[in-house]
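ENTRY TYPE: protein
WANTED: fold as tokens:
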Amino acid sequence: MLRAVSTPERRGFRARDLTAPWRHVDVILMVAVGLVLLLGLAMVYSATRRFPDGSGFVLRQGMFAVVGIAIMMGLSLVDYRRIADWWQAIYAGSVVLLLGVLTPLGATVNGTKGWYRFGFISLQPAEFAKLATILAVAAYLGSVDRVDLRRLGVARALLGVPMGITLLQPDLGSALVFIVIAMGMLVVAGVRLRHLAVLVLLGVVAVLGILNSGTLDQYQKDRLTSFVSPTGQSYNVDQAQKAIGSGGLTGYGFTQGPQTRGGYVPEQQTDFIFTVAGEELGFVGAGSLVLLLGVIVWRMWRAAQLASDELGTLLCVGILCMFLFHIFENVGMTLGIMPVTGIPLPFVSYGGSSLLVSFTAVGLVQSVHMHRFN
């Protein structure tokens, strides 16, 4: 006598849907982001505790972190293809915001007119434009079968417009980020080597043109070229190297760094935040921070490899290039091996714009990873 095999439905249960997005959250990526964020809040606290309103820095950073986490979680639940459908509007909005800072509405910080000020909150549209441009280029190139010269021209225009506007501010650091993003995404998209060589040459010419023009003040030129002339290092780099070098293996201890407590490193809570980790946590702590940032980059690369379409791959690669250059440039300039450009360290440097964009970028990577079976 045959016996009927019971099914999950007959037992009153629903069969598990293994393609459900929530089953594919990249937990390793989330843990790494959380640990870096906690380290960043601690470093910001240590770097600003000497200020009269020192606690305000951490509170504001924490506020932006809460908003950023909410954005990250929300984006991860939305299929990235739906978000990409709006790339024209998102890209156009970012360009309008970039142009707006060149008007009287913009505020100047450290010689760069690239900010909006709203009371105690400042927003830098160049940070948002980086992510909007990545989305635009990924959506455009992901919709074509082959990148010919005409399509390469369109992609180059999408990348060139925000880069050109940031050079007018002038913000050479952000312009360099756009160049790195362009190279990474175009290589993965299959652009021919000779075409890439021409684009690199154009980028170098643009950077050299800015350096030799009257757009930058002399002190800005000195900061950008100090890494090629050890005898002419800027004060910022000199103090940063002293702070990191004095930390030794395990550092002075949290909030106990003499360079940090004395305020000898300029812009320590933003551009030179890595010096706090080097001085107070030593090689072990600073190395652990770099390792965690490396884990984030690795998971982005993995998401790019597992993506189900060209759009997802290009989106993750663009974000990966942005993060990788931010990390290498920020850490490198504190060590004196890269130019001082004012590029923030993701999830660590004080600043709402950088923090919100970093969380948004991770949310998009999570969306690609979670919706790859859709």
About this structure: Residues 27-45+54-370 form one domain. Confidence is low (pLDDT under 50) at residues 1-14. Strands lie at 107-109, 112-118, 121-123. The chain has one domain: 27-45+54-370.
